[in-house]
Sequence to fold (256 residues):
Amino acid sequence: MIIACPACSTRYVVPDASIGVDGRTVRCAKCKHSWHQDGPELNLADFVAEPAAQQTPPPATPPAPPKPREKPRAPATDHPSPPPTVVETAPAPQPDYDESSNVSQFDYQPPFRPRRNPLKLWTAAAAIFAVLALGSVVAVNFLGLPAWVPVNRPTFAMGQPGLVLEFPEDQQDRRALPNGTEFFGATGTIKNTGRETRRVPPLLIVLRDQRDRIVFDWVVEPPQSSLAPGESMTINEAVTDVPKSAKFAEIGWKPG
Fold:
């Protein structure tokens, strides 16, 4: 069939099968105008069956092969027409971006999160450790080790410069009283052998058993808080209800 562009009147020769019975939308290759082209008209006479002329069918003869249908030629014109172009309808192309959000699907997206710098992480960890270590040292210097730390602590404090303790063993009394309680008493002296007045710290008396384990201890406050050079003081201490397992006594300066 021959179709013509309604806008520029350019004519095209198009096969009937390309247009179809219901027609389709085509576009002119010259002026780009699109329109709906109706399908070819059907001849109803071709579909009406002729009545049988005779009762008996004619002898069967092999049908002749159909002749090829010649395409109608377009009338000659002064200017040659461009080759026929049939534009097939297709869904409208989808935009490369979301018009509502104005974000293209081809925009750059990072493939993964940026990696952290391990050097910075180690530096921060070292700084935190240094701060914690410094705080621990300061706390131990001022407050001492906590009781839950599993270390061996000295029973007595270090000796006081210029102060001398003298508690002879023959001046220690360990016996059972008539009422059954255990009694322990100790007598000794503290002497300042230095050239300056010294403050006298508290004393600590410790009782140990046969396995050298501490079974009893108590703190003794001196009767004087300080001693002048060459001065001395006497300490007389006694306590009852001590454990029967106590066998030895040690006397020294109270720690801390």
Q: What stands out?
A: The first strand starts at residue 2 and ends at 4. Residues 50-54, 95-99 have pLDDT under 50 and may be disordered. The CA atoms of residues 23 and 37 lie 5 Å apart. The domain at 163-253 is CATH 2.60.40.10 (Immunoglobulin-like).
